[in-house]
Amino acid sequence: MATNSVYRGIYDTVTLYPKSIPPTVQLVRQKIQAMEAQNRDDAFFVVDLGQIFQKLHTWHRLLPRVRPFYAMKCNSDPEVCRFLARAGVGFDCASQVEMEQILSLGVHPSRIVYANPCKACTHLRYAQERNVDLMTFDDVHELVKIDNYFPDARLLLRIQSSKEHKAKHDFNKKFGCDPDDAPKLLKTARAMGLNVVGVSFHVGSLPEEVDCFASTIREAKGVFTAGNDAGFNMQVLDIGGGFPGVDEVSMTFEKVAETVNTALDKHFPASLGIQIIAEPGRYLVTSAFTVAVNIIAKRVLYFKSGDLNYNMSDERVLYFKSETSPQKKKSASYLSLVSKDSDYVDEESDEGADLDSSVDDVDDDKEDMKNTVCMYYINDGIYGAFNNVFTDHAVIYPELPATPRSSETFTSVVWGPTCDGLDCVLHECQLPDLDVGQWLYFHDMGAYTVSLACAFNGINRPQLFYVCADTYWNEVFSSPEEIALTKLSMASEISTNGKSLSAQSSATISGKGLFEKI
Ligand code: PLP
């Protein structure tokens, strides 16, 4: 497969492909072959920056009034952030370290929203020193801190999202002022001489219905009015994150965009000149990341009874109810807890003569593998990239780089590599019979994966290999003048404090100089 060129970035290399970029699956397979040729089996990511470009393009097409400020907590990978910075995106930062990372890319501080309603004083002081002045608050205690450390800051009152709707990650318990309490808090801010410029909210990550956006935008309008009544000049609406990373039947980005546009047109028509921003995280990066892992160990359990269930309280006893193992590729967990008295035997068990008769019976059962559970151990798990399974309700399923020797599938469990019993990537799935040394890969692994990974048990986070279609890359990196214009227009667009931006904006433009062609 011909590649155009490779750019060496400050952190890593990015392989560019002609516009007709091969599908990620082909790139992953190619990389697997290269790894095998080098006798390597380490897990790795293929990161397609072009997919991020396409997501951004769709965003601008479907949500033209809404400026994205990427929620970098979702994936703070340096090349991803650099790419997005060059593409003119703003950033939602939650801490000093995140602000440092983005400012070090030459991004103007006005392209950052410090969107953490509970800020450490030292981080607040840092924001003040670097003039990252747009930030959220939701409580009087935060106002007191802001008054102490950054009284000139431009504040967005974060409200709770509409209680009419649910999300898998509901933030209302932790953050947000009840819209009914907003007028009082706004009056307090006014009395303290602080500068509230707008309202923010987050409908929750992985919301269940698109209407949550409409109802919360409606509630935000009421708080806007309260802010204006309190004497503020309310100018910014921040509609947060929660945009789907991959489309589901009930929740597509197109449906969300349609709902948001309708609600904005109704409550914040363009004629009002309100600046609308958002903090998409998963939307931009989920589909750009594919992780490939190697099977490092295997164990097969044969069952005599066919009454297989799983007992979490004893890791030695693994037994499934056979009727609970349908072809459910996307199944999360179908495990049921029952007594651990069922007949079972570990393939490599050496537990003495009293098991011999069971083993004989099991040999018979081997003919018909219905009562078999295959356990595979892969070289990354929930303490690495797969922590999204644990922390982000991710429903994942593996794909194989090559056609399996038989299409027959068996109930399987996929474990991570650490010695922790919690480290289970797939509690139950149907897989063909696989061998140690074979590869699996998983798509849509960009959100809340690498940025949460740690090296527990000394297992390092998988290496990342970046690819991009050259046309997208060139659009982002080849025209510093255009980038300058984008940055300038964006910076001035969201600036409401009248500070001069042009000097700093032009200083941020370094064009291709950051990437040295090799
Ligand atoms: N903004 C804030 C304040 C958040 O806390 C989060 C996620 O936790 C996001 C944006 C991004 O959410 P998502 O990845 O669902 O778009």
From TrEMBL:
<dbReference type="GO" id="GO:0033387">
    <property type="term" value="P:putrescine biosynthetic process from arginine, via ornithine"/>
</dbReference>
<comment type="similarity">
    <text>Belongs to the Orn/Lys/Arg decarboxylase class-II family.</text>
</comment>
<feature type="modified residue" description="N6-(pyridoxal phosphate)lysine">
    <location>
        <position position="73"/>
    </location>
</feature>
<dbReference type="InterPro" id="IPR009006">
    <property type="entry name" value="Ala_racemase/Decarboxylase_C"/>
</dbReference>
<feature type="active site" description="Proton donor">
    <location>
        <position position="419"/>
    </location>
</feature>
<dbReference type="InterPro" id="IPR029066">
    <property type="entry name" value="PLP-binding_barrel"/>
</dbReference>
<keyword id="KW-0663">Pyridoxal phosphate</keyword>
<dbReference type="GO" id="GO:0004586">
    <property type="term" value="F:ornithine decarboxylase activity"/>
</dbReference>
<protein>
    <submittedName>
        <fullName>Ornithine decarboxylase</fullName>
    </submittedName>
</protein>
<feature type="domain" description="Orn/DAP/Arg decarboxylase 2 N-terminal">
    <location>
        <begin position="49"/>
        <end position="285"/>
    </location>
</feature>
<dbReference type="InterPro" id="IPR022644">
    <property type="entry name" value="De-COase2_N"/>
</dbReference>
<dbReference type="Pfam" id="PF02784">
    <property type="entry name" value="Orn_Arg_deC_N"/>
</dbReference>
<feature type="region of interest" description="Disordered">
    <location>
        <begin position="343"/>
        <end position="364"/>
    </location>
</feature>
<dbReference type="InterPro" id="IPR022643">
    <property type="entry name" value="De-COase2_C"/>
</dbReference>
<keyword id="KW-0456">Lyase</keyword>
<dbReference type="Pfam" id="PF00278">
    <property type="entry name" value="Orn_DAP_Arg_deC"/>
</dbReference>
<feature type="compositionally biased region" description="Acidic residues">
    <location>
        <begin position="344"/>
        <end position="364"/>
    </location>
</feature>
<dbReference type="InterPro" id="IPR002433">
    <property type="entry name" value="Orn_de-COase"/>
</dbReference>
<dbReference type="InterPro" id="IPR000183">
    <property type="entry name" value="Orn/DAP/Arg_de-COase"/>
</dbReference>
<dbReference type="GO" id="GO:0005737">
    <property type="term" value="C:cytoplasm"/>
</dbReference>
<feature type="domain" description="Orn/DAP/Arg decarboxylase 2 C-terminal">
    <location>
        <begin position="371"/>
        <end position="446"/>
    </location>
</feature>
<comment type="function">
    <text>Catalyzes the first and rate-limiting step of polyamine biosynthesis that converts ornithine into putrescine, which is the precursor for the polyamines, spermidine and spermine. Polyamines are essential for cell proliferation and are implicated in cellular processes, ranging from DNA replication to apoptosis.</text>
</comment>
